[in-house]
């Protein structure tokens, strides 16, 4: 018994230290813990502005233009599918084909991002995408497209999206100062959200109205424009091979690369690093938890909107855009809020907003309340993403960033199909006992309750002291990047 006294005393001292750090979070984390957070973001349009550098704005332009093309063609593919078949199962499977690469291809994409020059990888992927959609557009124009070919196109474009998105995210720290990562991520996410949702959707509708082949030609042009912009970014962007973490000079990865190792070994190394990290592991768990819950609820959102809110197609489209509007607005102040109240409180605030959003949807039949909750939820999503992406970019050694980032995102995406299945099962079970309306509300109310558990987990594992310890800890060693 006496041997346990020092342990209890040590635990009590650690708890007191955490409480003191949480009380000081608004002052210390608000001032920018370890240089993570950014300077205030002014309410400018999401375009070039001072402080982030020319290389960032080239990457911003290339990524945003590419995302517009992605958004257009990912709407056109399901529409074209309905022209080729009336089978609801095949239409649903086409959506699976587009998203399946996120489960199957994320880990190899992370290895490639750590093996080769990241800018060149993005160039190659967009050239491949341009070729695929150009050929597809020609086949559609010639009325020669078939359903099996369209499935192959969906898989190929999904793979390109996985590689491009992961690589652009891990390249960003090489072109932006560490203190500006949150501002840079906010600008990038805000632009992609507003242009992808508010511009991409109506553009797709106009293009489809003129001709089914035009969305694919549009995507080919956007991919080539992205390539031209990336060609203007100078420097070598190979993964760093030192022990440092965070952003490096653009030419820091230059030099002869070490011998290549088996892909399986490199993937395992990234997974082990993520799972052994005291902050990023609970962050990944929290993301998987949150995404699974949201997927369970929003998998039946269209039925809720039609049957409970009584919305038609046009009104549902406007309601669906409210989240994107909130995300766009949130991108302007995410870095400022993080600097004012600290990253841990921001993450907890975002989780509270998620819970309120689900509670509002589950408890009301008033459209404007649901729309307002969706706007707030969109803001919370961007706040969460800006902070967590910036933390990964800051904490992970550059030589491992591609693999760790892909493992992290795989956990987040991989739990969503499970959540969707559970949400559908819950609706079916409740409908037999309590009726249709109660069944459609049940996933949202259930997620509200489960969110309380997530908040408890975050208070214990993602508090201010945990984030500060991770930011102040010595950088973990990075393994050599293979060529």
Descriptive labels:
0% strand; mainly alpha; disordered C terminus; MFS_dom; 483 residues; Growth Hormone, Chain: A; 2 domains
How would you summarize this macromolecular structure in one to three sentences?
One of its GO terms (molecular function) is transmembrane transporter activity. The protein has 483 residues and is mainly α.
Element layout with pairings:
Layout: H1 5-23, H2 25-28, H3 54-84, H4 88-104, H5 106-115, H6 118-141, H7 147-171, H8 181-210, H9 214-231, H10 263-276, H11 280-298, H12 301-307, H13 313-341, H14 343-363, H15 367-395, H16 401-434, H17 436-461, H18 464-472
Helix pairs in contact: 3-4, 3-7, 3-8, 3-9, 4-7, 5-7, 5-16, 6-7, 6-9, 7-16, 8-13, 8-15, 10-16, 11-16, 11-17, 13-14, 13-15, 14-15, 14-17, 16-17
Biased composition (Acidic residues): 14-24
Protein name: Transmembrane secretion effector
Transmembrane segments: 88-113, 120-141, 206-233, 279-305, 311-334, 346-363, 369-389, 410-430, 442-459
């Amino acid at each position: 018994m006496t041997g346990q006294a020092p342990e209890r005393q040590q635990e009590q001292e650690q708890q007191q230290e955490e409480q003191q750090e949480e009380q000081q979070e608004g002052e210390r984390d608000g001032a920018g813990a370890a240089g993570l957070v950014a300077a205030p973001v002014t309410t400018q349009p999401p375009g070039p502005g001072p402080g982030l550098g020319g290389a960032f704005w080239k990457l911003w332009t290339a990524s945003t233009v590419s995302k517009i093309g992605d958004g257009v063609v990912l709407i056109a593919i399901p529409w074209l599918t309905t022209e080729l078949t009336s089978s609801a199962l095949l239409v649903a499977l086409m959506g699976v084909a587009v998203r399946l690469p996120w489960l199957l291809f994320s880990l190899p994409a992370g290895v490639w991002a750590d093996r080769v020059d990241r800018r060149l990888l993005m160039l190659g992927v967009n050239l491949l995408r341009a070729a695929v959609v150009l050929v597809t557009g020609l086949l559609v124009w010639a009325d020669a497209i078939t359903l099996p070919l369209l499935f192959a196109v969906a898989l190929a474009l999904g793979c390109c999206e996985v590689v491009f998105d992961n690589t652009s995210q891990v390249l960003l720290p090489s072109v932006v100062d560490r203190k500006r990562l949150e501002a840079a991520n906010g600008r990038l996410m805000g632009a992609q959200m507003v242009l992808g949702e508010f511009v991409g959707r109506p553009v797709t509708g106009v293009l489809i109205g003129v001709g089914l082949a035009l969305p694919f030609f549009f995507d080919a042009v956007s991919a080539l424009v992205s390539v031209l912009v990336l060609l203007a970014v100078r420097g070598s962007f190979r993964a760093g091979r030192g022990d440092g973490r965070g952003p490096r000079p653009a030419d820091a990865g230059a030099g002869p690369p070490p011998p290549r190792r088996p892909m399986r070994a490199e993937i395992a190394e990234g997974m082990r690093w993520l799972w052994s990290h005291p902050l990023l592991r609970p962050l990944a768990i929290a993301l998987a938890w949150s995404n699974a819950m949201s997927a369970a609820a929003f998998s039946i959102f269209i039925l809720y909107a039609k049957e409970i809110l009584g919305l038609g197609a046009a009104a549902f489209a406007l309601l669906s855009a409210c989240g994107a509007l909130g995300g766009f607005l949130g991108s302007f102040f995410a870095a400022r809020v993080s600097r004012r109240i600290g990253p841990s409180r921001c993450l907890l605030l975002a989780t509270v907003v998620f819970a309120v959003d689900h509670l509002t949807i589950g408890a009301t039949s008033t459209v404007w309340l649901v729309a307002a909750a969706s706007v707030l939820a969109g803001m919370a999503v961007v706040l969460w993403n800006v902070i967590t992406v910036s933390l990964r970019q800051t904490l992970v050694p550059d030589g491992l960033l591609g693999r760790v980032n892909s493992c992290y995102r795989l956990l987040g995406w991989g739990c969503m199909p499970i959540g969707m299945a559970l949400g559908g099962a819950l609706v079916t079970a409740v409908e037999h006992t309590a009726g249709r309306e109660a069944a459609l509300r049940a996933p949202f109310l259930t997620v509200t309750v489960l969110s309380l558990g997530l908040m408890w987990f975050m208070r214990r594992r993602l508090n201010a002291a945990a984030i500060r310890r991770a930011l102040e800890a010595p950088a973990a060693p990075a393994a050599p990047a293979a060529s």
